[in-house]
């Protein structure tokens, strides 16, 4: 139900994608461009975002050293359905439901990165009831944290197939690599063998 992941860069996981799980995503090294739904912004170490199910997202490092970095992302993923079902029987879990609804836009948290890192580390090192308790504690702190902003202006719920996601990921990479240069929609479309 609860998965803790980390990966370096470059990595095949760094692409425009979505999944069914909620994802708490913490950047620990490099900076660059973040894309969440229809939001485009900058990220740097300490950037902490919670994305909802099927909300497309990617972080593209623009200062990646030639040799890459061993750890760029620390991630906590958890499924939607078990939490909603459990909240029917455990009213205390309902405290998290407004947070989960906001996450459908993507939520950037300010001033929570150290706490999130410690929480994810504790979850990763725990098992059984202690693991779930650590997860519930972190979820509660995120739900009560008021220094945040919603990222995507709409609740994009992607249903693209793998080929479309791969093509869109190439477009995102091109834009991120060339954002300082002028280019047109026609140029990108031609480069990707697409119509405008």
Notable characteristics:
3-stranded antiparallel sheet; alpha+beta; 196 residues
How would you summarize the topology of this molecule?
Blueprint: E1 2-9, E2 22-27, E3 32-36, E4 39-43, E5 48-51, E6 57-61, E7 69-78, H1 80-89, H2 97-102, E8 107-109, H3 113-125, H4 128-144, E9 148-150, H5 162-177, H6 185-191
Antiparallel strand pairs: 1-7, 2-5, 2-7, 3-4, 3-6, 5-8, 8-9
Radius of gyration: 17 Å
Distance N to C terminus: 41 Å
Write down the overall geometry: globular
What is the mean pLDDT? 90
Could you spell the SSE succession in H and E letters? EEEEEEEHHEHHEHH
General description of the model:
The chain is α+β, with helices and mostly antiparallel strands. Helix content is 35%, strand content 25%. The chain contains 6 helices and 9 strands. It has a 6-stranded antiparallel sheet. Strands 4-3-6 form a 3-stranded antiparallel sheet, with helices on one face. Strand 3 and strand 4 (39-43) form a beta hairpin. It is globular, with a radius of gyration of 17 Å.
Summarize the structure.
The protein has 196 residues and is an alpha+beta fold.
């Amino acid at each position: 139900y609860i998965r803790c992941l980390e990966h370096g860069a470059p990595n095949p996981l760094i692409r425009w994608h979505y999944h069914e799980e909620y994802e708490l995503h913490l950047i620990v090294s490099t900076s660059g461009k973040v894309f969440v739904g229809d939001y485009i912004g900058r990220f740097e170490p300490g950037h902490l975002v919670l994305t909802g199910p099927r909300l497309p997202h990617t972080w593209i490092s623009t200062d990646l050293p030639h040799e890459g970095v061993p750890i760029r992302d620390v991630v906590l993923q958890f499924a939607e359905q078990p939490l909603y079902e459990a909240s029917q029987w455990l009213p205390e879990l309902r405290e998290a439901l407004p947070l989960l609804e906001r996450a459908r836009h993507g939520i950037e948290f300010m001033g929570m990165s150290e706490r999130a890192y410690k929480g994810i580390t504790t979850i990763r090192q725990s098992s059984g009831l202690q693991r779930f308790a650590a997860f519930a504690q972190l979820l509660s702190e995120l739900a009560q944290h008021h220094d945040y902003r919603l990222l995507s202006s709409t609740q994009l719920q992607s249903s693209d197939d793998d080929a479309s996601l791969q093509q869109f990921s190439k477009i995102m990479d091109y834009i991120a690599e060339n954002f300082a240069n002028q280019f047109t929609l026609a140029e990108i479309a031609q480069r990707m063998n697409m119509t405008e």
